[in-house]
Design goal:
Helix content is 43%, strand content 19%. 42% of the residues are buried. The chain is of the alpha/beta class and 647 residues long. The protein binds 5'-O-[(L-methionyl)-sulphamoyl]adenosine.
Length: 647
């Protein structure tokens, strides 16, 4: 039987900035997915690359005092170097300035033009260079781009337009009939909400005299291709569309991975472009949340809260950074990241759970079995539980990963590691060793532990590609057949008799004391600042206008609501503030049902430090009035767009 195909892509990154954690996050996920599918028997293909045209690149080159081509060559290479540092193994790296890409962009443009879906017209609108697109009035917040905080330029120019509106109804039907096309679900609802109103046509060219850095429009050399129309096509040009073997092999299975800020081009521009060009639609759009600084705020150099994955990788190694990013952040949600979070996870999951399982097992085999993995003998009930758990892991992982529940999938592996550690405590090999009658039982336990470690090593290979060989080395395994997917589906593949050898500790504990000292120094500084702030006003109830202005109140729309498990007062809401999506947890379950809330426009405090309530992140607070018996939400009495500031 021929293998199933799996194709995964990252966004192609703009070369106006150095690689950062936002890029690394999506790329690590793509690499994990590519490796996991390969392990699980798929013919897996992973594409990444760089987006090298457009105004912002031309501006960045100019600022650097370089010719655009020389500039993009240099920065594109930095991405390649960065990916090496994180052990990213892509199959192809596409650059939009390559001839193979330009040719296909022009062919697709011509196809769409010939289909009658492109016309020439005048356009007037607000262009955000940061987003490289016109923003609608609805998208602006206080006249500014919500993502970049800058006021877009008002522009009027002659452009070619793609008849995107013509495909709106079709796209709505497509999304409705393919429930997992866009996921997680909140983002799908967001797209459907955009599509519930006219989307207009898409300007797909720029006058060449203003933006010379781009791909010429095939039928009019006075215009170049709009950067998003050009960039999106990378996903098929890299496969050699239309005739390439790779295109036929992989395209139908495409999973795009993106961040939530570029959902509109991927969920609306791209499928309508494909439809018009007669190309089948990709399989899934997977939308990730944003990684925030350790303080829960958007990372920025000014705030000094930028977390650099490459620095962390130098310090702790690429495997640890990959494990941290994959296991700590629930896919689709925003999450605060930072070194102290990484250390906490490292010490618990890697040093304690996995590291200890390995060192305890090796030590016991050395001590109680002359350093050789014994043949198993008498089986007892804890063995069955361990074995059943191991044998059910592959299927569990497959289900979770196919739904993009990545951190839940990883948790399953760690539950198994936890079970194996518990197995040691239950079976107490050290006491079995004291009784010669229990020799066979002891052998079984030691064999099972070695087998559990082998299986764990295989499962973690897509997450931490350099660790399995270290575990195998200590277990004395040299046979490649023992690292296949087939070999983890059935317990007992490990052949007895291998000689184990203790090597360096794979995950030595990180001394938190040193870290704590650092944090304490920072904390003292903060306490001083807080104290200063407290003394400021005698009458604590009196605040100034400036004080009030610090509280950012905004209108938010409730997209989804659900109860928080195990907390009868709490509801978890997915809300939209302008373009931004957030989760808040509120103590209103006794007063509102989840259904009642969906669609409501409420008022939220938008600049609160995120907090965790019952393990759920809450990124804001809603306003409500209450007395002893009743509670009512503060809503608006006329319709107004979410994101509007309450002043
Ligand atoms: N060039 C376009 C993509 C074209 S794809 C046909 C682009 N490039 S980008 O370099 O600006 O951004 C790439 C990705 O990085 C986006 O998906 C964006 O969401 C992601 N991130 C940037 N900062 C981020 C975080 N802080 N956290 C998570 N991802 C974020 O857009």
């Amino acid at each position: 039987m021929s293998k199933k195909a799996f194709y995964v892509t990252t966004p192609i990154y703009y070369v106006n900035a150095e690689p950062h954690i936002g890029h690394a996050y999506t790329t690590v996920i793509a690499d994990f997915l590519a490796r996991w599918h390969r392990l699980a028997g798929y013919d897996s293909y992973f594409l990444t690359g760089t987006d090298e045209h457009g105004e912002k690149i031309a501006q960045a080159a100019q600022k650097a005092g370089q010719e655009p081509q020389a500039f993009v060559d240099k920065v594109s290479n930095r991405f390649k170097e960065a990916w090496k540092k994180l052990c990213i193994e892509y199959n192809d790296f596409i650059r939009t300035t390559e001839p193979r890409h330009k040719k296909i962009v022009q062919e697709i443009l011509q196809k769409v033009y010939d289909a009658g879906d492109i016309y020439y017209g005048e356009y007037e609108g607000h262009y955000c260079v940061g987003c490289e697109r016109f923003l609608t009035d609805k998208e602006l917040v206080d006249g500014r781009c919500p993502d970049h905080g800058t006021a877009p330029e008002k522009r009027k120019e002659g452009n070619y337009f793609f008849r995107m509106e013509k495909y709106r109804e079709w796209l709505i039907d497509y999304i409705n009939s393919h429930p997992d096309f866009i996921r997680p679900e909140g983002y799908r609802n967001e797209v459907l909400s955009i599509l519930s109103e006219p989307i207009g046509d898409l300007s797909i060219s720029r006058p060449r005299e203003r933006v010379p850095w781009g791909i010429p429009i095939p039928w009019d050399e006075n215009h170049v291709t709009y950067v998003w129309f050009d960039a999106l096509i990378n996903y098929v040009s890299a496969l050699g569309y239309p005739d390439g073997k790779k295109f036929h092999r992989y395209w139908d299975s495409a999973w795009h991975l993106i961040g939530k800020d570029i959902i509109k081009p991927h969920a609306i521009f791209w499928p309508t472009m494909l439809k018009s060009a007669g190309i089948p639609i990709y399989k899934h759009l997977n939308v990730g949340g944003f990684l925030m600084g350790p303080d829960g705020r958007k990372m920025s150099k000014t705030l000094g809260n930028v977390v650099d994955p490459f620095d962390l990788s130098e310090k702790y190694g690429p495997d640890v950074v990959r494990y941290y990013l994959l296991s700590d952040v629930p896919y689709g949600q925003d999450a605060a990241v930072g070194e102290s979070h990484l250390i906490a996870r490292y010490n618990t999951d890697l040093a304690n759970d996995l590291g200890n399982l390995l060192s305890r097992t090796i030590t016991m085999i050395e001590k109680f079995s002359d350093g050789k993995i014994p043949a198993p003998g008498v089986a007892e009930s804890p063995d069955d539980e361990l074995i059943a758990m191991a044998e059910s892991l592959p299927e569990k992982l497959e289900t979770k990963i196919s739904h993009m529940e990545l951190n839940a999938a990883i948790r399953e592996i760690w539950r198994f590691i936890g079970r194996a550690n518990k197995y040691i405590d239950e079976t107490m090999p050290w006491s079995l060793a004291k009784n010669p009658n229990q020799k066979e039982r002891l052998n079984t336990v030691l064999y099972n532990l070695a087998e559990a470690l082998r299986i764990t090593a295989v499962h973690i290979s897509p997450i931490m590609p350099n660790i399995p060989s270290k575990i195998f080395e200590q277990l004395g395994i040299a046979d490649d057949k023992l690292s296949t997917w087939e070999s983890v589906k059935k317990w007992g593949q490990l052949s007895p008799g291998l000689t184990v050898s203790r090597k360096e500790i794979i995950f030595p504990r990180i001394d938190e004391k040193a870290k704590a000292k650092e944090a304490e120094a920072k904390g003292k500084q903060k306490a001083k600042e807080d104290a200063k702030a407290e003394v400021k006003e005698e009458g604590a109830n009196v605040i100034t206008i400036e004080d009030f202005a610090k509280v950012e109140l905004r209108i938010a729309e409730v997209l989804e609501a659900e109860k928080v498990k195990g907390a009868d007062k709490l509801l978890k809401l997915q809300i939209k503030i302008g373009d931004e999506r957030r989760q808040i947890v509120a103590g209103i379950a006794k007063h509102y049902t989840p259904e009642e809330l969906v669609g409501k426009k409420i008022v939220v405090v938008a600049n609160l430090k995120p907090a965790k309530l019952r393990g759920e992140v809450s990124q804001g607070m809603l306003l409500a009035a209450s007395n002893e018996e009743s509670l009512t939400l503060i809503t608006v009495d006329r319709d107004i767009d979410s994101g509007a500031r309450v002043k």
